[in-house]
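Ticket #4471: structure export looks truncated?
Reporter: QA, pipeline team
Priority: medium

Steps to reproduce: submit the single chain below to the structure queue and open the exported record.
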Amino acid sequence: MHEPDMSLVHSVLTGVATELEADPHSDTAWGTAREALAHYGIPRDTDPQLTSAIEGRDADSLARIVQGWHSGDRVMLEHDRSVLKRAMKAYRKSLKVTILDAESSLGGGPMSSGRRSTITGIMPPRRYPLEVWDQLVHQGRLAGGRRGIYELPPGG
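Actual output as written to the record:
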């Protein structure tokens, strides 16, 4: 599993739910789900339905929970919301630094007023895995992802 501070429980449990579609009684998949909650430090009382689904080995309930996260009908775990918020902050800071760097070197000499940068997107900070950036695109908080370049959506 990935570093807990930088990755999403959502992604692990989505993979588990997919595995369970093929074999709802897979000890490996259920073990992965339990390990994920422990690895990411998710307390049992955080989401009683999630805990019940995993402890009761209820593949249908777990699939509904994951689908709810994906569709936005269900609030993601606090851990995942926190990771996404930190990733978005890191992205904005990197974009700002990139634009400032470009503007400081555009237009020549120290006595010129320089030019405005036309940079609209960047490669996001690598400390967060691709799943985080893809989730931000899915939520509409970032656009793109083509060739590894993400940008703020219009009005963002």
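Status: closed, not a bug. The export was complete when the record was re-opened. Leaving a note from the reviewer for reference: The radius of gyration is 20 Å.
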